[in-house]
Design a protein that fits this description.
Layout (H helix, E strand, L loop, with lengths): L31 E2 L5 E5 L2 H4 L12 H12 L3 E2 L6 E2 L2 E5 L13 H18 L3 E4 L1 H12 L10 H4 L4 E2 L4 E2 L12 H13 L15
Parallel strand pairs: 2-5, 2-6, 6-8
Antiparallel strand pairs: 1-5, 3-4, 7-8
Length: 210
């Protein structure tokens, strides 16, 4: 059993390269949860998936709260909504820094933070990557699988499917605000199925698509 660290927030002491946050907002929403986890939920940035005030990924916003509720239903999360206790699950963003006035990151902003995200993802070394939304899914499929060229970035089609990665199983999640009937149940069922399988054998083993 690996034991990376017992720290819950920013377990590796990352220091973002800039602070452009609004007054009262956190400089960054750092990775949060069980750093020894087998499941890593990857969001986009704080403005869409939440945490600018709480400092915790997948809080505050509609999308963030919906993802957290899925984690609660599948047994990964418990405790307070703004500071959940995560077990066997780690959450982080491709772009961790808060930006002013509801701004979205530019391509240069994403590039500035890519090395921080990559270092943390590899340190966590989870078995299952769960990117939420098109940006996170595109990044994870490009950087951690050889499969990106096989897919249109159609999140409705990719939602709750498993994709072969380079040592990971990737299960994309469509943005909750875009879910239609059955989408919530689909990702809950997929996670429950993975949990009851010998998912630790996915490391370095080809998984299926569909």
């Amino acid at each position: 059993m690996k034991n990376v660290t017992e720290r819950t927030s920013n377990p590796f002491g990352l220091r973002p390269p800039f602070d452009r946050s609004d007054p009262g907002d956190r400089t960054a929403v750092f990775g949060y949860g069980d750093a020894n986890a087998d499941f890593h939920v990857v969001g986009d940035f704080p403005g869409v998936h939440g945490g600018e005030t709480t400092g915790v990924p997948f809080t505050e916003t509609e999308d963030g709260v919906a993802i957290q509720e899925v984690l609660r239903e599948t047994g990964f999360a418990s405790g307070p909504r703004d500071e959940p206790v995560l077990e066997n699950c780690f959450c982080s963003y491709v772009h961790m820094c808060s930006l002013p006035d509801g701004q979205a990151p530019t391509e240069a902003d994403y590039a500035d933070l890519e090395r921080f995200f990559d270092a943390e993802l590899r340190a966590i070394n989870a078995h299952i990557l769960l990117p939420v939304g098109a940006r996170a899914t595109d990044h994870v499929l490009r950087e951690y699988t050889t499969q990106r060229h096989r897919f249109e970035l159609d999140m409705a089609s990719l939602h709750a499917r498993d994709v072969r990665g380079r040592g990971f199983m990737v299960v994309p999640i469509q943005e909750p605000v875009e879910w239609v009937d059955g989408d919530r149940e689909a990702i809950v069922s997929k996670l429950e199925a993975i949990l009851t399988s010998d998912y630790r054998q996915t490391k370095g083993v080809a998984t299926t698509v569909g």
